[in-house]
Amino acid sequence: MQKTFFLLMVVVLIFIIGCSAYAQKTGEDRIVPVIMTVTGLGIAAIWTADIISGKTLDTSNGFLRARNPESNALMWPHWTAEYVTAAGLLLGAYGLFSDKSWGKEVALVSIGALAYTSINSLSWSLAEKERIAYAIPMLVSLTGACISLAILF
After folding, report:
1. Shortest CA distance to 44 belongs to which of 17, 72, 67, 73?
2. How large is the C-alpha radius of gyration of the chain?
């Protein structure tokens, strides 16, 4: 119940922020920050929900020593990369929306990080047939990153 409520609130928040951002700009100035905002919030929401569920974690030695039970890899470096990417996307979107001098640079770095994390995560999702569904958001994110980079350049 809590997970459903949390995900519903995230969807509502993404919708409100997206509509608000969309109304502030015109044409190409809209699409990149909207893609960045929706993707940044989506990454943070998906990872937060995954961490809260605890289904794919071994936290027997504590949260910062949590490991992926399949690979035995520590999770905190991966979480750091995902959350820093999400925060960078949100900061870059804000910079673009607000016409800040640093907005485009932050956006480019963050979109590059998004492209990298999407490609890197595809290797995990395509490794086994039962994970193929996980490839969909990664492909959508990679497509959004490519579109955004094409527009910004």
Report:
1. 17
2. 16
